[in-house]
Amino acid sequence: MVAAGAFAFATTRGMGMQATNLAIGILCVLGGGIAAQWVAWRFRLPAIVLLFSLGLVLGPGLGVLHPGAAIGPYFHPLVSMAVAFIVFEGGLALDLRQWRESGEGVLRLTAAALPINWVLGSLAAHYVGCLPWGTSWLFGAIVVVTGPTVVLPLLRHTKLRPRVAAFLRWEAIVNDPIAAILATLVLECLLIRPSHTGGISLATVEIGPHLLFATMFSIACGVFPAILIKFLSARDMLPEILRIPMILAFVMTVAALCNLIMQGAGLMAATVFGMALANLHVTGMSELQRIKESLGVIVVSCLFVLLTADLPRTLLTELSLPIMALTFTVMFVVRPLGIFLSTIGASMSWQERLFVGWIAPRGIVAAAVAGVVGMQLHEAGYPGGDLITPAVFALIASTMILHGFSLRPLARALRLTLSDEPALAIMGANAWSTNLARVVHDRGIPVLLVDTYAPALNKAAGFGIPILRAELLSVEGMESLEERPADYLIAATPDAIYNGLVCARMAPDLGRQRVFQVSPGIARLDLYHGLSRDSRGKVLGEPGWNFSYIDSLYAKGWRFGSHVMEAHGAEADLPAGPGMLFMIIRKGTAIWIFSAEDAIPAEPAPGDIIVMLRPPAMAAGEGVGASAPARPA
């Protein structure tokens, strides 16, 4: 009995230790990853660098996390499934209509640049990194990839011009599965014994048919589920509650199934599935877009921390001088030269070629593939197999840090970015909204006036205000708005319901605190009986400032004006008189649009631009001061 009691105590204690380790792991990976994402967003830092650093500290540094040992043989398959979800998310963004703008450049970067970079990278690995030829070809195959797990987060934090962003996005997503399959093929060539078939080469007899079958099977596995989803949706045979679970289940299923055929084929199937869904225009995909973006942030955060934490401490001791020289050769010679050669005669400008030639961060796919194939090569006793992992991770760390911090400054220097000033879009071109847009535009703040009525827009264009004739609730309208992205939106049409629809559509992209609409009326703002907050934007100004009220004031001669705050003035220093505060603009930082629903009202600081609607006598003055907003009777 004593022995049984001791065994039970030891078992209970062991289970308690496992629960404690699990809690610590979740706290470090999930909590730490999301915290790093928030810090990166708040201070405009590359999130991938913070996540990579966090993994290094928790893993090789402090020894808190040991993912490979804790999860065991399931670690790499789980990583592969997570990466499949990430490339599926990227595939959803690959609309073939983008080829109208960037098709030639994308084709050069995926079809021509990849083999050139493979050859150049392999030569560099052999002659600079001193790796054996077989290991060199494997290294070159792994590093041709530019990971979407790294590129896509960088694109979200940088306002690149749409054409340049499309180059990087398509290259990262399309090359990802191709590079994984290429590395698998090279590994098979190194490990499979030559067949005794006479003069026919090994690649023709064993590798060629296998590659062809795996490719066709992966494409079929990606296209068929998308067609099935569209078929069921069109015939009302797929309930809404099952639509997204079925799609996510298909992603994992086709990825796992295709990986049984060939390692890396699952990534191709997941990418094709995402592309097929995007280009078949399956209805109800907006909900999936919101969910997959949120899941994508969590998955990327966890994967970066886990893969980096799984690195052994001895990895640093394996970073020899040839490996470091190889890293910088790939970054400064191989990649730029490969892009230059593959884009000769293309319609890309020299600024675009230079930018794409430098920006090529490697990410999770390269790390995962290197960990798997490097271990297999080393276990097979192949010369230099143990150097694959340190060589690839040295390149991953260097590109994430250097490319992550240099992307925004280089894009600015080459004039490949849109304005860094906070941008405002106003839906509805009428007399007073045009006046508001003109005042904001004259202060050097990017503003876009959107409407479907050409005469109203033409009048605004006469004042130099940028205009967009489109329906924001249409696919074309959303694509047009992506070319001139906005950070804030004011829906200012006479139709309160339409304003609410526009705000509800734009809220997931801009944020619910950044979409505003003219008040639909005091009664409709009731939190219980009125319009749901999820179905409308924040009320612009006070509840009584509906469209008719503002329009009547404008008809009486009220006009918008702006004033720059020179100091923290006391109330006595501000001009007296009625006025309606609409917004406070802090250049290069943010726009605070006044709303009665603000939890914390914004306070102007020296240098801020105050935009107000003032009576005729005051609007005609030279300066418009800041006073307390007037509440309509």
From TrEMBL:
Membrane topology: Multi-pass membrane protein
Taxonomic superkingdom: Bacteria
Pfam families, per the entry: Na_H_Exchanger
Range of residues in the leader sequence: none
InterPro entries: Cation/H_exchanger_TM (IPR006153), Na+/solute_symporter_sf (IPR038770), NAD(P)-bd_dom_sf (IPR036291)
Location within or outside the cell: Cell membrane
Main location: membrane
Transmembrane regions: 22-41, 48-68, 74-94, 106-128, 134-155, 207-229, 268-288, 295-315, 321-342, 354-375, 387-405
One example GO MF annotation: antiporter activity
Gene Ontology CC, one term: plasma membrane
GO biological process per UniProt: proton transmembrane transport
Domain Cation/H+ exchanger transmembrane intervals: 39-412
Keywords from the UniProt entry: Antiport, Cell membrane, Ion transport, Membrane, Transmembrane, Transmembrane helix, Transport
Gene3D superfamilies assigned: 1.20.1530.20, NAD(P)-binding Rossmann-like Domain
Official protein name in the record: Sodium:proton antiporter
Organism annotation: Komagataeibacter swingsii
